[in-house]
Amino acid sequence: MTGTRAKLITGTLAAIREHGIAGVSARSIAAAAGVNQALIFYHYGTVDELLAAACHASAIACVELYRDRFAGVRTLRELLDVGRELHEREKTDGNVTVLAQLMAGAQNDKKLAAPTAAALALWTDEIEGILRRLLHNSPLGDLADPAGLANAVSAAFIGLELYEGVDPHRAGSAFAALEQLAGLAEVVDDLGPIARRALRSRLRR
After folding, report:
1. Which terminal CB of the chain, N or C, has fewer other CB atoms within 10 Å?
2. Domain that holds residue 154
3. Domain match, 17 and 96 both
4. What is the CATH number of the domain that holds 27?
5. How many domains does the chain have?
6. pTM for the complete prediction?
7. Quick one: which of 122, 121, 101 has its CA closest to 112?
8. In this structure, are residues 48 and 66 in contact, taking their beta carbons and an 8 Å threshold?
9. pLDDT (tens digit, 9 = 90+) per residue, 90-147?
10. Is residue 198's pLDDT more than 70?
11. Pairwise CA distance, residues 205 & 109, whole Å
Protein backbone atom coordinates (compact mmCIF):
# COMPACT_ATOMS: atom_id res chain seq x y z
CA MET A 1 0.00 0.00 0.00
CA THR A 2 1.41 3.40 -1.02
CA GLY A 3 1.98 6.19 1.47
CA THR A 4 -1.01 8.15 0.17
CA ARG A 5 -3.31 5.12 0.27
CA ALA A 6 -2.20 4.35 3.82
CA LYS A 7 -2.91 7.95 4.85
CA LEU A 8 -6.37 7.74 3.31
CA ILE A 9 -7.15 4.49 5.13
CA THR A 10 -5.96 5.92 8.44
CA GLY A 11 -7.83 9.17 7.79
CA THR A 12 -11.03 7.29 6.98
CA LEU A 13 -10.95 5.36 10.25
CA ALA A 14 -10.20 8.57 12.16
CA ALA A 15 -13.10 10.36 10.44
CA ILE A 16 -15.49 7.55 11.37
CA ARG A 17 -14.40 7.74 15.02
CA GLU A 18 -14.80 11.52 15.12
CA HIS A 19 -17.87 12.13 12.97
CA GLY A 20 -19.70 8.81 12.80
CA ILE A 21 -20.60 7.12 9.54
CA ALA A 22 -23.27 9.73 8.74
CA GLY A 23 -20.71 12.52 9.00
CA VAL A 24 -18.02 10.92 6.85
CA SER A 25 -17.37 12.70 3.57
CA ALA A 26 -14.52 13.26 1.16
CA ARG A 27 -13.84 16.53 2.95
CA SER A 28 -13.74 15.04 6.47
CA ILE A 29 -11.56 12.13 5.35
CA ALA A 30 -9.12 14.39 3.52
CA ALA A 31 -8.87 16.66 6.56
CA ALA A 32 -8.14 13.70 8.85
CA ALA A 33 -5.63 12.27 6.39
CA GLY A 34 -3.95 15.61 5.72
CA VAL A 35 -4.26 15.29 1.94
CA ASN A 36 -6.18 16.88 -0.91
CA GLN A 37 -9.63 15.30 -1.23
CA ALA A 38 -9.10 14.82 -4.97
CA LEU A 39 -6.70 12.01 -4.05
CA ILE A 40 -9.63 9.99 -2.67
CA PHE A 41 -11.20 9.80 -6.11
CA TYR A 42 -7.86 9.28 -7.82
CA HIS A 43 -6.93 6.26 -5.69
CA TYR A 44 -10.34 4.78 -4.82
CA GLY A 45 -12.89 6.22 -7.21
CA THR A 46 -15.58 6.88 -4.60
CA VAL A 47 -15.91 7.44 -0.87
CA ASP A 48 -17.83 4.13 -0.62
CA GLU A 49 -14.89 2.26 -2.14
CA LEU A 50 -12.53 3.93 0.32
CA LEU A 51 -14.81 2.98 3.22
CA ALA A 52 -14.79 -0.62 2.01
CA ALA A 53 -10.99 -0.61 1.73
CA ALA A 54 -10.60 0.91 5.20
CA CYS A 55 -12.94 -1.67 6.70
CA HIS A 56 -10.98 -4.52 5.13
CA ALA A 57 -7.56 -3.09 5.99
CA SER A 58 -8.53 -2.53 9.62
CA ALA A 59 -9.76 -6.12 10.02
CA ILE A 60 -6.70 -7.59 8.28
CA ALA A 61 -4.32 -5.62 10.50
CA CYS A 62 -6.04 -6.70 13.70
CA VAL A 63 -6.32 -10.37 12.70
CA GLU A 64 -2.63 -10.40 11.80
CA LEU A 65 -1.79 -8.81 15.14
CA TYR A 66 -3.50 -11.63 17.03
CA ARG A 67 -2.77 -14.58 14.73
CA ASP A 68 0.18 -15.83 16.81
CA ARG A 69 -1.90 -15.54 19.99
CA PHE A 70 -4.71 -17.52 18.36
CA ALA A 71 -2.24 -20.20 17.28
CA GLY A 72 -1.14 -20.62 20.89
CA VAL A 73 -4.65 -21.13 22.30
CA ARG A 74 -5.05 -24.60 23.81
CA THR A 75 -8.35 -24.38 25.71
CA LEU A 76 -11.67 -22.57 25.46
CA ARG A 77 -10.71 -20.60 28.56
CA GLU A 78 -7.55 -19.39 26.83
CA LEU A 79 -9.64 -18.40 23.82
CA LEU A 80 -11.88 -16.38 26.11
CA ASP A 81 -8.83 -14.74 27.73
CA VAL A 82 -7.53 -13.69 24.32
CA GLY A 83 -11.03 -12.44 23.50
CA ARG A 84 -11.05 -10.26 26.60
CA GLU A 85 -7.63 -8.85 25.75
CA LEU A 86 -8.75 -8.18 22.19
CA HIS A 87 -11.91 -6.52 23.46
CA GLU A 88 -9.97 -4.12 25.70
CA ARG A 89 -7.50 -3.27 22.95
CA GLU A 90 -10.23 -2.65 20.39
CA LYS A 91 -12.08 -0.41 22.84
CA THR A 92 -8.94 1.57 23.71
CA ASP A 93 -7.99 2.00 20.04
CA GLY A 94 -11.47 3.22 19.16
CA ASN A 95 -12.16 0.30 16.85
CA VAL A 96 -15.35 -0.62 18.69
CA THR A 97 -16.71 2.78 17.64
CA VAL A 98 -15.65 2.14 14.04
CA LEU A 99 -17.32 -1.29 14.06
CA ALA A 100 -20.54 0.09 15.51
CA GLN A 101 -20.65 2.86 12.93
CA LEU A 102 -19.91 0.56 10.00
CA MET A 103 -22.58 -1.89 11.08
CA ALA A 104 -25.08 0.93 11.55
CA GLY A 105 -24.30 2.30 8.10
CA ALA A 106 -24.50 -1.17 6.55
CA GLN A 107 -28.13 -1.54 7.61
CA ASN A 108 -29.23 0.81 4.83
CA ASP A 109 -26.26 0.78 2.47
CA LYS A 110 -25.62 -2.39 0.46
CA LYS A 111 -22.29 -1.02 -0.73
CA LEU A 112 -21.13 -0.93 2.88
CA ALA A 113 -22.84 -4.17 3.96
CA ALA A 114 -20.71 -6.47 1.80
CA PRO A 115 -17.26 -5.22 2.93
CA THR A 116 -18.39 -5.07 6.56
CA ALA A 117 -19.58 -8.68 6.37
CA ALA A 118 -16.33 -9.70 4.66
CA ALA A 119 -14.28 -8.07 7.41
CA LEU A 120 -16.28 -9.87 10.09
CA ALA A 121 -15.81 -13.13 8.18
CA LEU A 122 -12.04 -12.79 8.59
CA TRP A 123 -12.54 -13.03 12.36
CA THR A 124 -15.08 -15.83 12.08
CA ASP A 125 -12.73 -17.93 9.94
CA GLU A 126 -9.96 -17.53 12.51
CA ILE A 127 -12.28 -18.55 15.34
CA GLU A 128 -13.61 -21.54 13.40
CA GLY A 129 -10.07 -22.83 12.90
CA ILE A 130 -9.37 -22.57 16.63
CA LEU A 131 -12.64 -24.29 17.58
CA ARG A 132 -12.03 -27.15 15.16
CA ARG A 133 -8.62 -27.70 16.72
CA LEU A 134 -9.87 -27.47 20.31
CA LEU A 135 -12.91 -29.69 19.80
CA HIS A 136 -11.20 -32.33 17.66
CA ASN A 137 -10.62 -34.78 20.53
CA SER A 138 -13.28 -33.48 22.88
CA PRO A 139 -16.57 -35.31 23.56
CA LEU A 140 -18.20 -31.98 22.78
CA GLY A 141 -16.82 -32.21 19.27
CA ASP A 142 -19.48 -34.79 18.39
CA LEU A 143 -22.20 -32.33 19.30
CA ALA A 144 -20.84 -28.96 18.21
CA ASP A 145 -20.85 -27.50 14.71
CA PRO A 146 -17.57 -25.52 14.58
CA ALA A 147 -18.70 -23.29 11.71
CA GLY A 148 -22.02 -22.43 13.33
CA LEU A 149 -20.38 -22.05 16.73
CA ALA A 150 -17.78 -19.68 15.24
CA ASN A 151 -20.58 -17.52 13.85
CA ALA A 152 -22.26 -17.52 17.26
CA VAL A 153 -19.01 -16.58 19.03
CA SER A 154 -18.37 -13.74 16.57
CA ALA A 155 -21.91 -12.43 16.95
CA ALA A 156 -21.68 -12.66 20.74
CA PHE A 157 -18.35 -10.84 20.79
CA ILE A 158 -19.69 -8.02 18.63
CA GLY A 159 -22.80 -7.80 20.78
CA LEU A 160 -20.76 -7.64 23.99
CA GLU A 161 -18.50 -4.94 22.55
CA LEU A 162 -21.51 -2.78 21.73
CA TYR A 163 -23.42 -3.75 24.88
CA GLU A 164 -20.61 -2.64 27.17
CA GLY A 165 -20.98 0.90 25.84
CA VAL A 166 -24.49 1.15 27.28
CA ASP A 167 -24.41 -1.27 30.23
CA PRO A 168 -20.91 -2.31 31.39
CA HIS A 169 -22.24 -4.24 34.39
CA ARG A 170 -24.47 -6.57 32.38
CA ALA A 171 -21.79 -7.00 29.73
CA GLY A 172 -19.38 -8.04 32.48
CA SER A 173 -21.96 -10.52 33.74
CA ALA A 174 -22.19 -12.01 30.26
CA PHE A 175 -18.40 -12.43 30.11
CA ALA A 176 -18.53 -14.17 33.51
CA ALA A 177 -21.17 -16.58 32.19
CA LEU A 178 -18.94 -17.44 29.24
CA GLU A 179 -16.11 -18.18 31.66
CA GLN A 180 -18.40 -20.62 33.48
CA LEU A 181 -19.11 -22.41 30.20
CA ALA A 182 -15.38 -22.58 29.47
CA GLY A 183 -14.88 -24.12 32.91
CA LEU A 184 -17.57 -26.69 32.18
CA ALA A 185 -15.85 -27.62 28.94
CA GLU A 186 -12.59 -28.16 30.86
CA VAL A 187 -14.38 -30.52 33.25
CA VAL A 188 -15.70 -32.53 30.30
CA ASP A 189 -12.25 -32.73 28.70
CA ASP A 190 -10.75 -33.93 32.00
CA LEU A 191 -13.09 -36.91 32.25
CA GLY A 192 -11.56 -40.38 32.20
CA PRO A 193 -11.83 -42.60 29.11
CA ILE A 194 -14.86 -44.53 30.36
CA ALA A 195 -16.77 -41.38 31.28
CA ARG A 196 -15.81 -39.78 27.97
CA ARG A 197 -17.16 -42.78 26.04
CA ALA A 198 -20.37 -42.71 28.05
CA LEU A 199 -20.78 -38.98 27.42
CA ARG A 200 -20.14 -39.39 23.69
CA SER A 201 -22.75 -42.14 23.55
CA ARG A 202 -25.24 -39.98 25.38
CA LEU A 203 -24.65 -36.97 23.15
CA ARG A 204 -25.12 -39.01 19.99
CA ARG A 205 -28.65 -40.06 20.94
Report:
1. C
2. 52-203
3. no
4. 1.10.10.60
5. 2
6. 0.77
7. 101
8. no
9. 888 888 788 888 888 888 888 889 999 998 899 899 999 998 988 887 766 666 788 9
10. no
11. 45
